[in-house]
Design goal:
The chain is of the alpha/beta class and 225 residues long. The chain has helices at 10-24, 62-72, 84-90, 104-110, 114-123, 206-222, and strands spanning 27-35, 46-51, 81-82, 125-149, 152-173, 178-199. It contains six helices and six strands, in the order αββαβαααβββα. It has a six-stranded mixed sheet with strand order 1-6-5-4-2-3.
Length: 225
């Protein structure tokens, strides 16, 4: 019996694997933590993760806020998270972008409102985590040209750019009405779009990496580790 090995597509596949390996090595994430107080959480207590949206030039994306909160509910030391939208709707209008407390002393004033204190107690909120940040694209370079012919089309060249996801989480202790810590995550990566007939976008997963590292660090922080 004869055997046959089809190597027609082997070289393109090998080329893509090499590109992916190079691409993966070009993403890095740095996490910094500044602790200002003792932390810990009981099984009947919860955390709410909220995005800052008071800035005029950007707002913290709700998708990133949801990513951090969802990841904190998984794995060892999982924490009960109150969904951002559910919390804001229940607390209307006190946590809308224009009226949300900017400092813990503002929260202290809010807690004098019976409805706010009651809702906090119903949710079992022990910590409020404020997320502030954005993902930016810069240093674009390269060129890409495409042509269409009767037999089809093709693109050649390549583009490259740098993505930078920079987010900060400030943790408020609702029990003591004080800031207990700040955690920042900065993820940078090089994205590529090489084109040999067909463009192949290789996008740096900087925001996903920032979400993962920040959520894991927050989970440890809240648990007092």
């Amino acid at each position: 019996m004869n055997s046959y090995l089809d190597t027609t597509n082997q070289k393109p596949r090998d080329f893509l694997i090499v590109l992916l390996a190079i691409f993966a090595s070009c993403t890095s994430t740095t996490v910094d933590e500044f602790r200002q107080g003792e932390t810990g959480i009981e099984s009947d207590e919860s955390v709410v993760v909220l995005g800052r949206r008071q800035a005029s030039d950007y707002e913290t994306r709700s998708e990133f806020v949801e990513c951090v909160g969802e990841r904190m509910t998984r794995g060892t030391g999982a924490i009960s998270i109150v969904p951002e939208r559910q919390f804001i709707d229940s607390m209307f209008p006190w946590f809308e972008p224009r009226t949300a407390p900017l400092r813990t002393r503002d929260l202290e004033l809010l807690m004098t409102e019976d409805v706010v204190a009651r809702k906090m107690d119903e949710f079992g909120i022990r910590y409020i985590v404020w997320l502030d940040g954005v993902t930016e694209t810069r240093d674009r370079a390269g060129s890409l040209s495409c042509a269409i012919a009767p037999g089809g089309g093709a693109c050649f060249g390549g583009l490259t750019w740098e993505d930078d996801a920079n987010f900060t989480a400030m943790v408020w202790d609702v029990g003591s009405l004080a800031t207990v810590g700040t955690i920042s995550a900065d993820a940078t990566g090089q994205s590529f779009m090489p084109a040999l007939v067909v463009p192949i976008p290789l996008i740096a997963r900087v925001e996903a990496n920032a979400c993962q590292r920040l959520a894991d660090q927050l989970k440890q922080f809240v648990n007092g580790i």
